[in-house]
Amino acid sequence: MEATSGGSRLIGSRARQAAGHRPRVVIVGAGFGGLAAAKGLRHADVDVTVVDRRNYHLFQPLLYQVATAALSPAQIAMPIRRILSRQSNVTVLMERVEGIDKENRFVQTTNSRIAYDYLVVATGARHAYFGKDEWAETAPGLKTIADATEIRARILSAFERAEAAEDEAERRRFLTFVVVGGGPTGVELAGAIAELARKVIVRDFRRIDPSSARVVLVEAGNIVLPTMPAKLSGEARRHLEMLGVEVSLGEAVTRCDSEGVALAGGRQIRSSCVLWAAGVMASRAAKWLGVPADRAGRVHVDRNLNPPGNDEIFVIGDTAAVTDKNGRTVPGVAPAAKQMGEHAARAILAGLDGRTAGLFGYRDFGNLATIGRNAAVADFRRIRLSGFSAWLVWNIAHLWFLVGFRNRFVVFADWALAYVRYDRAARLITDRYER
Amino acid sequence: MEATSGGSRLIGSRARQAAGHRPRVVIVGAGFGGLAAAKGLRHADVDVTVVDRRNYHLFQPLLYQVATAALSPAQIAMPIRRILSRQSNVTVLMERVEGIDKENRFVQTTNSRIAYDYLVVATGARHAYFGKDEWAETAPGLKTIADATEIRARILSAFERAEAAEDEAERRRFLTFVVVGGGPTGVELAGAIAELARKVIVRDFRRIDPSSARVVLVEAGNIVLPTMPAKLSGEARRHLEMLGVEVSLGEAVTRCDSEGVALAGGRQIRSSCVLWAAGVMASRAAKWLGVPADRAGRVHVDRNLNPPGNDEIFVIGDTAAVTDKNGRTVPGVAPAAKQMGEHAARAILAGLDGRTAGLFGYRDFGNLATIGRNAAVADFRRIRLSGFSAWLVWNIAHLWFLVGFRNRFVVFADWALAYVRYDRAARLITDRYER
């Protein structure tokens, strides 16, 4: 049922009478958390405003496939206002948030002030360089579509420049790819680059052998996928090595520039294409709110997802450091962000009716990471899979959760065709990489 | 049959013995003309080098659909080296050409010199501003994928800014779209924008009514589609007006800035989104070659497509001003470029065998332009169509000529779904338009 104005059975009507106006909920950020919060308020007699500086919701788990030319941006991104089109109590604004005035309860954007009674902050995280921000130019990270098309252009351009290079040492440098960070994104990127070089583009060049490309995954810790059980981490490493990825463990990167990287042990890797998947830093929400944050910039929230003393403000998803009602640390993954968004909506509904909502509890459905086109690792606690079966589960799960029928259908068609033909559909070098 | 080294029956073997090396053909530009030339040499005992500053061949007739969010870039673009992957006598280089040394017969790129025995120049054209280059920033034209995503971002951002605007006059300015130029690109763009506003996004906004958007097509001449028969021009105008496009004829644009445009008659149109489809200027090939060009920068070539006195050089496609062997002026369309590329290949093959090829004759298969999702105009001289039948022909023709099975399949799926659901799949505002 859609909310209609003044419907007496609508949740929030009592609060409306008390406040003298329809309660205003502002949601900043339309990732998994923000969208879930908006959808959770679909039957509420409130005015919801969703503010995002982009016009699209991004299915981030598949972003590495855009970065490695397997999918087009539009296949994993959808306009926010399209997703929320039928929810008549929502207004979507594409604006950049500059700050939050907790005292007077408004969000300051570049162009306007948006007053709120309840505020949901779901602004996510970006990659971080551990204080070495100058590395960003050399080693882009992967969070937005612009990041993904940039990385795609760098990977494809490296092969182009290798084909054109006159000097053998230069050619080697162009054919060496370094991925920093052994978490899911790093593992997925390294696997996809190795596969691109060895399978997809292998016949397209005349002067170079793309399959001779060197792909190095550099992880400072002693295992890849550290949040996985040790056995699956080992399996993931084995699958990566089968694809031809060199896995370098136990040494951090100490230098990163146009020549490549240096590792803590003194080793140098000459490379023209270094990608960053090592660190994450929350958005500036803690600064906007003037509340304490942890080292990764995440706002400390209580078990109702409020920053202490601000019951009308919810901080959710990657922006928040959360311990749930069972004392578990909540990981920075899409399902957790969704659940927090749903919790925020429930808590707001309860507040509007003068009730109190329960505390937030995280349901862990498992953990998945893919390595190339035939292998993945999956941890559902009772069941642990690796190899092809895990890869199938990974595909089904990701297709299932993709927003919107159209995307699901087209992504499936593309995957199926790419699988059969070993092809990559979106091998485009665009924008500033056009020569 | 693929060329194999030294095969005695291969065309060009005699010339190879005479020259002491395998003849080298350099093709600059991998548009319709350049690709056709390369393919025409597939059985020749020559070394072909295709040089392009981009890594992709673009199906330009559908570019306006990327600019209006109906298709993704990868659906109408394909890597050049992928297209030519199986033609073993071709090397593809992604390099920017800086000049041509006719004396010593080499092409100078940013990084290298590429020697040639035969040269095919197929570098196309860009939009031109009739000496008002400062208009380019305000009114982008549509030639590359970067242009198309830029225009897409401008169109979609205008609606976003209208939704956020506080002031009614500003809102009107954001909701006014001006397309300058009544040729096929201008007609297609204006029709697609009107349709986007009136059909696709109409339910996605809360504060504005997208269907109130004003789309003005400004043409300095007295008809739209001037290369079409008068009856079809009139039909096209009628279909545009049915879609809600204001067609302004007989007045040129005299001012173009961030406020909008002014017309020769003194009328002002306030608009935040002006698109340019009015003029075309050939690439710098005439300057590289030091040969005469017409006002649009096109190289004057003889009926063998050589600049006078340079039998080893062919200038084809939009870069050339051509009168064919029957005395007809050859239009700047994709089929003409293809035919010229095929002719250049035949002439090179003949030259290698010491024969002379016939002169170039243009076969005119007809002329098509589409207006929105149900109408088009088609001129096959004997048969003239307008409305839905022309639109069907337009769709079949364009699908048929799209390079590669995959693209054809996916574009068809997207079109079919978009037709049924009145949806646009690629409504993304990316890169510098992210706020």
Short description:
The structure is a homodimer of 435-residue chains. Chain A is built from twelve helices and 24 strands.
* Silhouette of chain A: elongated
Structural class of chain A: alpha/beta
CATH architecture of the largest domain in chain A: 3-Layer(bba) Sandwich
The strand count of chain A comes to 24
Catalytic activity (chains A, B): a quinone + NADH + H(+) = a quinol + NAD(+)
InterPro entries (chains A, B): FAD/NAD-bd_sf, FAD/NAD-binding_dom, NDH-2, NDH2-like_C
EC number (chains A, B): 1.6.5.9
Protein name (chains A, B): NADH:ubiquinone reductase (non-electrogenic)
Structure, explained:
The structure is a homodimer of 435-residue chains. By secondary structure, chain A is α/β, with parallel strands linked by helices. Chain A has two domains: 13-53 and 95-127 and 281-352, FAD/NAD(P)-binding domain; 133-278 and 373-433, FAD/NAD(P)-binding domain (3-Layer(bba) Sandwich), CATH 3.50.50. Chain A is 31% helix and 23% strand. Chain A contains twelve helices and 24 strands. Chain A has a five-stranded parallel sheet with strand order 5-2-1-9-20, with helices on one face. The first copy, chain A, has a four-stranded parallel sheet with strand order 13-12-11-17. In chain A, α2 links the parallel β1 and β2. In chain A, α2 runs parallel beside α10. The radius of gyration of chain A is 23 Å and the shape is elongated. Chain A starts with 12 loop residues before the first helix and ends in a 14-residue tail after the last helix. The interface between A and B is large, with 58 and 58 residues.
